[in-house]
């Protein structure tokens, strides 16, 4: 076991082991997550899903990660947790929209009073940002070109800025996910040139208007999935980002696509899926969140009243996969990875959190309202911060 740091009030050393718990079983009738318009009913005669110790850690992790979020947001001093794994390693927020890049996208790319708010312009900005998924790349484009608009878009100008940035030694792509190069589809040697051509294709084929006309998140996903270099995972991420805008208004409980990391987390949480698909298991988590937190005695600090959505539960499986590499080293996933690569480092600039206005939570933030359970989360050790497996 790797040493994971010295949390406040704890001695440095290896996590203590506890006896393995008896697997729990979950029995239910369930509607297929992939087709909200005409759900398929899953037979109640399927074998019940059986959980592992990591399943309980999923909920403890989610609650503690959200407490860390509130401690930081409310200005509590570091350290924000007594959990020895979460104190040392980097994990994304329990809510996807709270992460730094999503916050930047929402506030500085989508909802911009100084930029056009038409459907074409908003989707152009979102897709341009997400193809690189890196704040610094967006800021280089703005710094060199001024206003980033589709009306003034020219391939050679954008290409020149990005080519120069790479020549100066800057990375223009995020490491969060890998964008396929697209050379076979668009014929350019440079990856960013192919992605600019992909964006041009999307705009030429009226993708923004098609997304705006889509009646379900699944249809929006299918529209994006049809393009070269866009697989299931990217299409789901992109439709989620478009849905932060006013272009679409899908429920985040409509549809989910599990990513590779989430599939690893699912394997660690369920000893037997009971015949349910990965998407159905993620929906199960979203539907049972209050019940499971109550069972474990957890006060989950929601996002100003907004419960975890399917995208959040999907992301949490990815994070719990990483968490379990240290907290549950005996739990095997699909990839066989055993280490967490990134350690936590606080950003110099604090984030002023702001969310899609249609969610109805920005007024609560501005008024200083905090969910009741978050008041107990303003200091480590206040409530159930410790995973029993650590």
- Count of the domains: 2
Q: What kind of sheet is the major sheet? A: 3 strands, antiparallel
**Per DSSP, what share of the residues sits in E-state strands of 2 or more residues?**
under 5%
**Treating each run of at least 4 consecutive H or I residues as one helix, how many helices?**
15
Low-confidence stretches: 1-21, 27-46
Q: Please compute the radius of gyration using only Cα atoms.
A: 22 Å
Number of strands: 5
Main-sheet strand order equals 1-4-5
Explain this structure to me?
The protein is mainly alpha-helical and 390 residues long. The protein has 15 helices and five strands. It has helices at residues 53-73, 100-110, 119-132, 135-145, 155-167, 183-186, 191-204, 207-213, 217-225, 232-242, 260-269, 278-295, 310-327, 362-366, 372-375, and strands spanning 25-26, 30-31, 41-42, 49-51, 270-272. The strands form two sheets. A three-stranded antiparallel β-sheet has the order 1-4-5. Helix 5 (155-167) packs antiparallel against helix 7. The chain starts with 24 loop residues before the first strand and ends in a 15-residue tail after the last helix.
